[in-house]
Amino acid sequence: MAEPHYDRMFQRLEGVRWELADIDFTAIDRSKIAQRTLDFVRVNCLMELSSLYATRMFLRDFRHDADFCQFISVWYYEEMKHYLVLREYLKAHGQEPDVSMFNELDVELEPADWRGTLPMHFVGELRLGMWYHRWSQVFEDEPVLARIYREIGNDEYRHAQCYEQFMASALERDPAVLLPFLNAAKFMLLNPEGDKHPTTFEGAADGTVTDRIDGYEAFKEQVIANIDAADEDELAARVLKTLSRLAGREIADKRDLVMLTRELAAAERVA
Fold it and tell me: Is 38 domain-assigned?
């Protein structure tokens, strides 16, 4: 039996992990922060709480994979630290969210096929890494916020690498998962709508987290303003490189991806 990914991932992520104590909140340059920026950070902070609901989803839908569920313990810790560091930043400005209303944001994500969820979160983590690194540039005049966003972005990119490894292992066990992997990645890459990320749109009987966060539309507008077509093209190139390696054939562009999914679907119907 292959060595579990969790063992290596735990040690690797622990070795590069930043701590909340590393952030010097006393160094905030308040002259560089506008209220609209704090409003943006507040929405971002509350959106990070969606990791709680995603964790419940992961443990439910991946119960067949103990290795992956163990990894989620690390992922959840780091994601909740993202929420906490943003909340501490807001607290330094006297504008931290009211914790008494957090239960109002709780949603239950509908059961989903893990074969779609895994690649969706792989692409989603890459997209989040792109967002956070961009925001570290947008807010570079305020060094503390820039540092926070850079650290979070690095975490998201590392998480994407972990999901990629789980995808590769799943393919080794069952090559038939390639088609659902490709279809999910295609969904994430085609016609992105500003904030296309699993926990903001996956099925929920009573709506999504973002439906309940005041100010979310303004946040989404800034995402759209900050992330342009070139950024999405760069993201797509990175995803397609990974998919090419997993598929064992070159997928040069999104058109190739669409054609390959059609080819595999046709072969599956014949079989």
Answer: yes
At 73 the three-state DSSP class reads helix
Pair of tokens at residue 78? 């780091």
By C-alpha distance, which of 38, 222, 28, 39 is closest to 142? 28
Nearest to 119 by CA among 164, 79, 77, 56: 164
From first CA to last CA, the distance across the chain in angstroms is: 30
pLDDT of residue 203: 46
Distance of CA 143 to the CA centre of its chain: 24
Q: Position 186: which residue type?
A: K
CB 32 within 8 A of CB 141: yes
Contact 82, 48 (CB under 8 A): yes
pLDDT at position 104: 80
- How far is 214 from 40, CA to CA, in rounded Å? 11
Enter the tokens of residue 33. Answer: 């922060």
Global pTM? 0.93
Tell me which residue has tokens 């994601």.
Answer: 79
**Alpha-carbon dihedral sign for residues 42, 235, 120, 70:** negative
Q: Structure tokens of 262?
A: 């059609």
Q: Is the pLDDT of residue 179 over 60?
A: yes
Provide φ and ψ at 145, rounded to 5°: -65, -40
pLDDT, average across residues 35-54: 93
pLDDT at residue 202 is higher than 70: no
Give me the CATH number covering residue 81: 1.10.620.20
Domain range for residue 210?
A: 32-270
- Separation of alpha carbons 213 and 42, rounded Å: 9
Asked if the model's pLDDT at residue 41 lies above 80, the reply is yes
Counting the structural domains of the chain, the total is 1
